[in-house]
Amino acid sequence: MNSNHGVRILVQACSKSYKQQVVLEPTDLRIESGETLVLLGPSGCGKTTTLRLIAGLDAPDSGRVLFNDEDVTALPIEKRNIGMVFQSYALFPNMTVEENIAYGLLVRKMPEVERKKRVGEMLEMMHIEALAERQITQLSGGQKQRVALARAIAPRPRALLLDEPLTALDARLRETLRVDINALLRSLGITTVYVTHDQTEAMALGDRIAVMEKGRISQVGTPRDIYFRPANRFVADFIGTMNTVGKNSFRPEEVRVVPPAQASMRGVVVSNFFLGDHNRVQVRLDSAEEVVLKLPPKQSFTVGDSIGLEVDTRGLVC
User: Fold this and answer.
1) Please, are residues 280 and 248 in contact by the beta-carbon 8 Å criterion?
2) pLDDT for 112-130, tens place per residue?
3) What is the mean pLDDT of residues 195-220?
4) Is the per-residue pLDDT at 37 higher than 60?
5) How far is CA 57 from CA 91, 145, 161, in A?
6) 17-21, 181-185, 192-196: segment of lowest average pLDDT
7) How far apart are alpha carbons 9 and 66 in whole angstroms?
8) CA geometry: angle at 91 spanning 89 and 92, to 5°?
9) Position 98 confidence tier, pLDDT thresholds 50, 70, 90
10) Is the pLDDT of residue 315 over 70?
11) Per residue in 50-78, is it b (16+ CB within 10 Å) or e — as a string?
């Protein structure tokens, strides 16, 4: 099933305050048709508020929201034709899996034959055919999230909005579902706004990422832009690990170990963690500054070792 009808979303100068506290400064954001845009940032940065304004769950204090050229600012959520998935699943516990998926179709008065066909498509797409007759209380967290996704997508909404959908799951399940969600969104071509504080999730899923800080958007760009060309110090520090020595900043993977006599930087190893696919080594330089290295798994050091370092100048980011 390919939707091919994703809506272009424009957020124009939208702001929001709660109890006289500003949670979103006047914000502009453009989300292209069929694009997956990730709102990324720490707790309280305004990302969920931005999502709620797009959804129609909240109204902006100023500004407007457009779907294509239609001003939907005053339109309630039930009339925006969007799908939403929450961290808490928000499923109906008194219904079976297939009844949950069919709910939005019933509300839209879809004929029974077509409704059953659509529910069957959703069960197959989310690999939960065997769960069709189960009660929600009988499902694992990952299964509940698949049902929530199926229910949101079943009515073929104009946009899909996801608010921290994987946060409650364990790390391995999060990774599995992340891969599945990515494949799903690519196949549907649906406009998607995805809220997360997890940078790995953002890098894996986003066509573009909007990094937010204190109610503002610090930078919007592709994952590569955000990582290699951060717009400011906050973005540089929030995405991945950033080393700073003097006026130069660089990522751990841009540092190589060289003989101390040939090195532009020298120091002593203060920690060495083997993480399977790489070693994370922390070095205190002669200048007293500390840097983190990402080294091949077989290139290991002991605390107290003297070490020489050289930075690839092409890896200097800001």
Assistant:
1) no
2) 999 999 999 999 988 899 9
3) 95
4) yes
5) 18, 21, 12
6) 181-185
7) 6
8) 160
9) very high
10) no
11) bbbbbbbebebeebebbbeeeebbeeebe
Place of tokens 């039930």: 78
How does strand 36-40 pair with strand 191-196? Answer: parallel
CA distance 211 to 75: 27
More confident residue, 5 or 280: 280
* Beta-bridge mates of residue 11: 29, 65
Contacts of 4 (CB under 8 A, 6+ apart): 34, 189
Q: Rounded to an integer, what distance in angstroms lies between the CA atom of residue 197 and that of residue 239?
A: 10
The helix or strand, by DSSP H or E, that contains position 111, with its residue range, turns out to be: none
pLDDT in tens, 62-76: 999 999 999 999 999
Instruction: Give buried/exposed letters for 272-286 (b at 16+ CB in 10 A, else e).
Output: beeeeebbebbbebe
Q: What does the pLDDT look like over 296-312, one tens digit per residue?
A: 999 889 999 999 999 98
Residue partners of 290: CB distance under 8 A and separation at least 6: 270, 282, 283, 284
**Residue carrying structure tokens 């409650």:** 168
Q: How far is the C-alpha of 252 from the C-alpha of 237, rounded, in Å?
A: 12
Which pair of tokens denotes residue 273?
């963690």
Neighbours of 133 (CB within 10 A): 10
H/E element, 148: helix 141-153
Determine contact, residues 251/317, Cβ cutoff 8 Å: yes
Task: Give bridge partners of residue 240 from the DSSP assignment.
Answer: none
Name the average pLDDT for the chain: 91
The pLDDT assigned to 2 comes to: 45
Residues in Cβ contact with 170 at an 8 Å cutoff, skipping those fewer than 6 apart: none
Cα 58 to the chain's mean position, in Å? 21
For the record, the structure tokens of 243 come out as 């080393």
Please give the helix or strand (H or E) that residue 318 lies within, else none. Answer: none
Tokens 């204090």, residue? 61
Q: Specify whether the CB–CB gap between 25 and 216 falls below 8 A.
A: yes
